Amino acid sequence: MSLNSAAATDYYWPVSGGQLWLPAGRPSQVKPGGTSACFRIDLPETDSAAKHWIALSDAPEWLAKEHWISLRELLDELDSGALFWASRALQVGHWWQRHRFCSCCGAELPAPQSELLAKGELVRICAVCHIRYYPAQTPCIIVLVTKGEYCLLAQHQRSRTGTYTALAGFVEAGERIEQTVVREVQEEVGLNVTQLTYMNSQSWPFPAQLMLGFYAHYDSGSIVPQPDEIKEAHWYHYRDLPKVPPVGTIARQLIDGFVQRCEMSADDKAR
Ligand SMILES: [Zn+2]
Q1: What is the pLDDT of residues 213-260, one digit of tens each?
Q2: Which domain holds residue 43?
């Protein structure tokens, strides 16, 4: 799916229970009926003539059942523009549905004020104690550990697809992300790593993470998978990889980048 951001089109993104409603695999261009909240989610710096709206409802049977879809099923099909909006809609929807009360005084939070929305400020302000609540993302790291022409890939205990992927984990309170990378690799597979390189980031709306992608060089230790998290973990040669995550994920970008680097250096050696 790609969206025409040059045309003055309205795109509606209905969100419910972590799913998007996409008839014919695209956001609706007419406002869906039965919404209890519908507001703009454009960012001020978004360079687009199109307008993007989130649509939300409290009704259990809201819109035609067959058009609700999980973004995980679309990762292969979306271009980066459509992925941005789908991801943003899901995260704003999660914030709306899971942050309904002030965590300080317990009062019910009102809808975002339209004059603030018009300025691109998406916020719910407690009417009693005036605390402001913004949609937030939780930072996480994802790291591909490499050793020459080999990379470390792990299958998670919770994997339903048998995929082998890079290691990932949440940034703890007070931690720098570099510390998180070192700690997560040590915890999950018992290895020490060095020479961290930041690659790229990806908003990951399952439900509200920001993934920060790194490469790290193997330094010392032997693989000991953490049994609660990791089913198995091995070194894989870049020409002989197992089943890896789909295109559209940052894990895949890290793996593809590593393979490309190895191929280029093999070409150099062959010359
Ligand atoms: Zn309050």
Answers
A1: 999 999 999 999 999 999 999 999 999 999 999 888 999 999 999 999
A2: 10-98
